[in-house]
Design a protein that fits this description.
Elements: H1 3-15, E1 36-43, E2 50-51, E3 56-59, E4 62-65, E5 67-72, E6 78-85, H2 86-97, H3 104-119, E7 130-131, H4 147-155, E8 159-163, E9 166-167, E10 172-173, H5 183-187, E11 209-215, H6 216-223, H7 225-228, E12 233-238, E13 250-254, E14 258-261, H8 263-270, E15 280-286, E16 291-297, E17 305-306, H9 307-315, H10 320-327, E18 332-335
Parallel strand pairs: 1-7, 10-17
Antiparallel strand pairs: 1-6, 2-3, 3-4, 5-6, 8-9, 8-18, 11-16, 12-13, 13-14, 15-16
Helix pairs in contact: 2-3, 2-4, 3-4, 3-9, 3-10
């Protein structure tokens, strides 16, 4: 299809009402038209966007579907918001979250997971629904699209993961490290389908294991007042693991006291690019050179779908439904 034909078809699709269709016997909701997603592209000082036509605009060297508006955030900062239909938004998400080379089953699973995620983030009373970054989902506009990823979104049109009569709370990360995490341990909120399960699928993938070395002064600077009262750092050890094998805490032993930190807090303080996951397997303080040495598996929070595992499952020919059923036990596929 030529680009002009595709844009015309996309615009027509966005405008046309679509009744909900039942699959697996469950309708989640019955909208008169596709949901509109408002994406926060930038806040504070930013380059002014330029309209291309009624369906696209240019900004920051890229092209975006939908419309744009400048609004004021509650703190007074100006913000650039991109509004567009749900699946048009997903076109710019999928190619940033996964590779176009992934098997159809893995691409379909990511498309459904991303659609379910954003439906749970629509907040009409707020200035925007999601941000165009890892905080929510990576979003790159037209430059983030691919033919393969658009096809996966179209092939799964309106499909969502459901629990009961509503879209499920959706979560995924780059690699779980061999076992997914329990949402209750990470976010203090339990979900019956976001529990820890063994996942052998991601073993040996690029993000499976990691190591980090952090000099003691950097540790003390990152943890700030929380660690300064313990005196000179003497040792670091992992607290007993939880049911999902992740440590329940990381103890920093000083000359005069001990500070017990959660793996989530340590990862946040030292940086997620350095401490790639909360699945810390070992922690050692080398007193001879004053360096904290950490080693672990996985990348990200580990809750829900492991993207690396989903990719390997797709390579073995599993369908999107089979992949999602594995990572979200007790859920079903429905239509929104």
């Amino acid at each position: 299809m030529r680009r002009t034909e595709f844009l015309f078809a996309a615009a027509a699709f966005a405008a046309a009402p679509r009744p909900a269709r039942a699959t697996g016997g469950l309708d989640v909701e019955n909208p008169e038209s596709p949901a509109v997603v408002r994406v926060l592209l930038a806040s504070g000082a930013f380059e002014a966007p330029q309209a291309i036509d009624g369906w696209r605009f240019a900004w920051n060297g890229g092209t975006y579907r939908g419309t744009f508006a400048t609004v004021r955030l509650p703190d007074g900062r100006p913000a650039l918001i991109n509004s567009l239909p749900l699946d048009a938004y997903l076109y710019g998400v999928l190619g940033k979250e996964i590779s176009a080379s992934w098997a159809p089953g893995a691409q379909g699973a990511q498309a459904i997971a991303s659609r379910t995620y954003v439906l749970g983030r629509l907040r009409p009373a707020k200035p925007y629904d999601v941000v165009a970054a890892e905080t929510d989902q990576h979003y790159g506009g037209v430059e983030g699209e691919s033919v393969e990823c658009r096809a996966a979104i179209d092939a799964t049109a309106s499909q969502v993961v459901t629990y009961g009569a509503a879209p499920a709370r959706m979560a995924y990360s780059a690699c779980c490290g061999g076992r997914t995490a329990d949402a209750a341990d990470v976010w203090k909120t339990p979900y019956p389908y976001l529990t820890s399960i063994p996942d052998p699928n991601c073993a040996g993938t690029p993000n499976f294991s990691w190591t980090a070395e952090v000099p003691a002064p950097e540790v003390e600077s990152a943890l700030g007042d929380r660690i300064r009262g313990i005196g000179e750092l003497r040792d670091v050890r992992l607290e007993s693991p939880s049911a999902d094998d992740r440590p329940t805490g990381i103890a920093f032993v000083g000359a005069s006291a001990t500070y017990d930190a959660s793996p989530v807090d340590v990862r946040s303080a030292l940086g997620t690019s350095l401490v790639r996951s909360t699945f810390v397997r070992s922690a050692t303080f080398r007193a001879n050179d004053g360096v904290l040495e950490l080693a672990g598996t996985g990348r990200g929070h580990g809750v829900g779908m492991c993207q690396a595992g989903a990719r390997m499952m797709g390579d073995r020919g599993l369908s999107a439904a089979e992949i999602l059923a594995f990572y979200f036990p007790g859920t079903a596929l429905g239509r929104a």
